[in-house]
Amino acid sequence: MEKSNHFMDRTKLFFAEIGDMTLFAVRFFKELFSSPFEFKELIRQCYNIGIRSLFLVMVTGFILGLVFTLQSRPTLTDLGAESWMPSMISISIVREIGPVIIALICAGRIGSGIGAELGSMRVTEQIDAMEVSGTNPFKYLVVTRILAVTLMLPLLVISGDTVALIGSAIVENLKGEVSYTLYFNKVFDALSFSDVLPATVKTVFFGFAIGLVGTYKGYNCGKGTVGVGEASNSAVVYTSMLLFVIDFIAVFVSDIFFEI
Amino acid sequence: MMRENKKPVLELKDIHKSFGNNHVLKGFNLRLYEGENLVIMGKSGSGKSVMVKCIVGLIQPDRGSITIKNQDIITMGQKELDFLRTEIGYLFQGSALYDSMTVRENIEFPLRRHKDKLKDFQGTDQAVKEALESVGLLHTLDLMPSELSGGMQRRVALARALILKPEIIMYDEPTTGLDPITSNEIIQLMRNIQIEYNTSSLIITHDVDCARVISNRIILLVDGVNYAEGTYEELSNSSDPQTRAFFKN
Questions:
Q1: What residues have CB less than 8 Å from B244, skipping those under 6 apart?
Q2: List of chain B residues whose C-beta atoms are within 8 Å of the C-beta of residue A136
């Protein structure tokens, strides 16, 4: 009985949180289109989120391309389908692995960073101080961050995918003696509009989810350092789950429109 | 005497505030007059900070009215409230400086949306320098808050509160966590600001020395209501033992 009550309470809390987060998202859209606009802060956040994550995304993408090709090579060689390597790798990376892996890495780096930053600002009354000074902290802190992640994540994913394909081309060049020109010719032959467009569009939603959850958790952070830790941690956990849900929906919708 | 000559700039009537079953304020009343230094004393957790947050609109009271310069802030719209907030300076207990910004950016911040307040100055830079000069920290202009001591952070926060030339300043525990010498410096600074800017101040503290030096009047907040009210001398020599207990060092 006690266990079922506990379960009911947790379920209620979960749905209440989803409701709060939806209202938070609605407020974001309302504030997004009302003046004053915080362009300077938006550019600063784009730099912080985009440029400062680029190195991590590039390294991860490069290793992803290398490892994926090295792992797939023996199987395709056994089947005598080595020539399919560039098409298989490029479609896998561009459609699915690149966006999901890079979004997960960004959820860890950017989502937790936003959660911790806003959380500590809440705990140390910096958000209250902004409000008291007559500045709208939601617009200054939340809207700029969500927008910056939404704009930057597609660019990060495109950069990561490109570097992953370069990594893959290097392995193919060294192991399979495939020239870089031939490799990339095969890549561009294999990729079509229906591969690139849905994959890029879903990264916009990934970015929005990372920004939304990170800012929501930080802005509504509990008290003390424990609250900041929880905000940062739960931002990553919630975002990671949400990314897979969005990915599932995106693949489902893409299938309807593009018959993938 | 002061109260007879001057008009109230801030008035709280029958303020109630609860958090769940915790009834923090149970009908608190207050009137702050022009140019007055009013000290609110009370035990930790007695609701002093909640009360001051109700005044600036950070917390909505459950019942009662709050009037600032004859305007009811509870029924006020967000835009009007933001504008009225420029008339109120707020010194937070932990300074609340924006730690990702330099001292200059911290002080400039309130001016971003209230450029009209710059009409007395030749530009933002002059306004920032003047505010910092008034707290004696002009040399810290390009430092980060983490590079400042606790006392310096408190003074920079005070400069930030002063940048919009407010008519009312709220001090939430201005000397808490500071050594006695720095505390005295902050108290002197508060006095100088009151004289220089002719502000009305509401000071939340349990620092008896601070209350003695700075107060024109003291209200004791006990169990969510006004327990006693008077000058420092009146209350510290009160016949009531609970009132006297607040003034023992």
A1: B235, B236, B237, B238
A2: 82
